[in-house]
Structure formats: C-alpha cells, structure tokens
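Blinded run. Sample ID left blank on purpose so nobody reads anything into the name before looking at the predicted structure. Input follows.
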Amino acid sequence: GGKKLILASGSPRRKELLEMLGFHDFDIVPARGEESVPEGLGPEEIVKALPVLFFAFVFTDNREKLLSVGFALGVGFAILENIMILLQNFSTVSLIWALLRGFGAALMHVVCTGVVGLELHFIHQKKKLFIPGSFALLVMSMTYHSIYNTLVQSQYKYFGFVLPLITFVILFFITFRSRLKSKNKKIQKEPAR
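Blinded prediction complete.
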C-alpha cells in the first residue's frame, strides 16, 4: 500500500483543516515537545516561502521562473514591511535612514526569496531532497533575515544596511559566472559549420 499521512499535532483545528482538504485516512501522533515558534522567528519567512514552494511544486521547476517569483515576493514583502515600519516610526526617523532601510530591506528580501526560488529548482529535481531541502532553505532564509534585523537594530546598523548589497553582488557574480560557463560549454559542444 501507499504511505499513510501522519498529523504530528493534537490540534483539533489542524485535524479539521486536513479533513476539509479531503484527507480522512491519517494517524494522529501528537508531538511530545513544545509546539511554539522560538522568539524572534515570526511567521514572516514561512509566509514568504509558501507561495514559492507552492509555485515550484504545482506549476514549474523552471529556474528562471522560480527566481522571478522569488524576487517578486521579496520585493512585495519589503515594500509592505517598510511601509509598516515607516508608519510606526514616522516622527522619529530621518529621510536618510528611511532610504537606507528601504533599500537594504528590499535587497535583503530579494536575496532571501531569490535564493529560495533559485535553489528550489535544484531540490525539486531531487525528489528525496524536496522536504528537507525546503526546510533548509527556510532556515537559511530565517537566519539571514535575523542577522539583518539584529544588525540594523544595533550600533552596526549601517553594516546591516550594506550586507544585502554585498550578498546580492556576490550572488550576482556567482550566477553570472555559472551562466557564462554553461554558455561556453554549449558553444564548445556545437559542431563547426
């Protein structure tokens, strides 16, 4: 027979949600530990990752499309986050701070969701890696986001604002170099006319 679904939670709401989705044959094995998110790791990264995961799983594993979806989600979240922070701190922030924070946060979100989108292409092709790979990408994204938030709220805030730019430039050159190598390989493989 096929593999059986296990709900690792005693939550009646989660059981109800699974049943609403059409899953009726599953075992309930509640987790023994605490089912809470560690402080500082809010649902933001999960909410950003879910559309990219859904897109990769349901629609395509095309690298360029996943990268575009990841970038678009990152920019969208950055705009929303920046508007919320600026509205909450409107009277206490300078224009320079707002511009640096806006640019840094936008790039940070683009880096996180872009890398997730890019790497989903790889892990989607390796079926056994899809779940652990997706989890690893989520953890990486949460860690990077946490480092950024910690830096911009400390005495090193300007380094925090520049960190996404440095990361973006490094990733751009790695990606550009990789594409250049694959293009050269294709040219070398083509027969002479």
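Unblinding after everyone has recorded impressions. The helical segments are 12-20, 44-59, 63-88, 95-125, 130-152, 157-189.
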